Fold these 2 entries.
Entry 1:
Amino acid sequence: MCGRGMKAILLGNTRVELYSTDATPRGVQLMHGEYLTQNCSCRIRDAACLGCGNVVGYHVTRPCGRCLEACNNGHFWMFLSEGVLGEDRIDPTGTKPLRWASLPRVEKDREELAETSERRETLCR
């Protein structure tokens, strides 16, 4: 689904672990209309896998003021930990996991994302 995801904790409920990303993922479709979250005034839409049809997370379409003012990383695509399987992305040396601080900006990372998207898309089928 995404080559730029990272493990995260939901700001509105720190007991919820998930994955988040700053890049629009491939292989997902927004479902239904917007609705309010339970813990704040953010508006979200469910995101479903185009391969299997299961809801795998959601997209924050309109973050609320409280969340925008809180310490956040600008990630508005969230994947439920029970809906996806995380996999470490390896650094250019091929020997250790790539750390978020070393990840290229999303604009420069498009080529790497395109090269690995085909393999990720086949994982749910």
Entry 2:
Amino acid sequence: KRRYPRSGKQYHRMVSSITNQEAIERFIRKVTDARNKLETQYPTQFCHPRRSRTSPWDHYHIAKEARKMHDLFVWLAEHAGDPAVENFVVRLKDHLLARLRDLPYEGDENEFSDNDRDCVLISDNKLYEHATLR
């Protein structure tokens, strides 16, 4: 009776519509049961932290958690020969210096001296990959 309002009122359409509704409900129940079973077997893999709310007026938001870490020099060695990583450390430090000094972004045209670049320290030569950038 509860499926009747969502079906066609003509008899031949009503029967097939109710049958489809029952099949969909069985499928959803089967998926839900399987998920609940997996959650009880492997509880840590299904623990999803809630996303923090961000203001719609923020220009961007970067997640505070960084689960994936890369050693800078190992990462550079893995990508050797890639034109995107030529002078990567120099360009990265130039980019960071420009952001830290509030210089307007115009395509990273700013060049800094080696003494300036030496002021930017990359702690333990680690780069962290963030999963969220909104």
